[in-house]
Amino acid sequence: MGASTGDDLRFETRAIHAGQDPEPAYGSVNVPIYQTSTYAQRAVGRPVRWDYARGGNPTREAFQQALAALEGGTHALAFASGLGAESTLLLTLRPGDHVVLGNDVYGGTYRLLAHVLEPWGLGSSTCDLADADALRAAIRDETRFVWVETPSNPLLKIVDIAGAAKIAHDAGARLVVDNTFATPALQLPLALGADVVVHSVTKYLGGHSDLIGGALVTNDDELADRLAFLTNAVGAVPGPMDSYLALRGLKTLALRMRAHCENAARVAGFLSQHERARAVHYPGLSSHEGHELAAQQMSDFGGIVSFTVGSAEEARDVASSTRLFFLAESLGGVESLIEVPAPMTHASVEGSPLEVPPELIRLSVGIEHPDDLIADLDRALR
Ligand SMILES: *Cc1c(COP(=O)(O)O)cnc(C)c1O
User: Fold this and answer.
1) pLDDT at 347
2) What is the pLDDT of residue 68?
3) pTM across the whole model
4) Which of 60, 97, 106, 204 is labelled catalytic?
């Protein structure tokens, strides 16, 4: 669509213009919500563009073009959820193939591989991806994907994307990066050597906690063809309304991420000084193990902060005592959220290599005024 997708434009401009030329019939500056399941054809077997909306929809297409432009990819595909995107990507593999995951990968990704695809014949194993030797040792002849999440959830570990890409490529595997936590506003995995970017659009891209969505982005034409086929064949596609909301979210992504990062840095600084907070995990803190790497491969450190308190019970108390931070799963919306990963988001990984400390609290720091957020945490910690 139009000249407005050009790479010469900067991120904030692409977010508003890529795939979003004014609608031709009436000049609507917003891409319409094309709420249709099918398309009238010009003649038998001659659709205008799509014959049926599982295969494509103009609102979804606009979101895909905008997201591809932001990630620096040539192809983007939208899905009904992050896990819908992941399932479709994993269906490019075959029984007997193998995937290497980080030992703190998103719990739903682990569950999909260990409990759905493993019995079906797709192997997977976990390792500490921050350790290059551990990654080399985890790769097998059958390894097709190395699956990186950085910063990771909920401990915010940082993985060297360019280093992991080289190790994966030397072994004939592809590097997949789940860019949900950083978003393309802060980190561009394809430019660092990744082959596929995965998103839970539910989080920062949507940004307002009002939709479930997913996406894949790649520069690999062959993989993109296969993924386009599978997207239609498997059918985990988003509706036009959710595609519209996702596109609307992208427009303010750069602004929101700036506010999330500023507020999270303030909150992390406050917690580091607080006597009841033990370990504080935030890549922007110079004490964080991955701080220097994060400073190299990210333009800022993101909106998620996690920290431990004295016990599991104390963690439950604190998480139930905030007023502005809502006690809820998920992350990446404009409102601040607090949760205890072990019994909440990470319940499905209990007893697995991904288990997290029960006294850990995770914050998704929103875009409210930071002084109000800090006052709320201070009250809850007292
Ligand atoms: C939420 C999340 C997912 C799964 O996305 P859904 O939209 O919930 O299906 C995948 N990866 C990460 C890092 C997530 O936070």
Assistant:
1) 83
2) 98
3) 0.96
4) 106
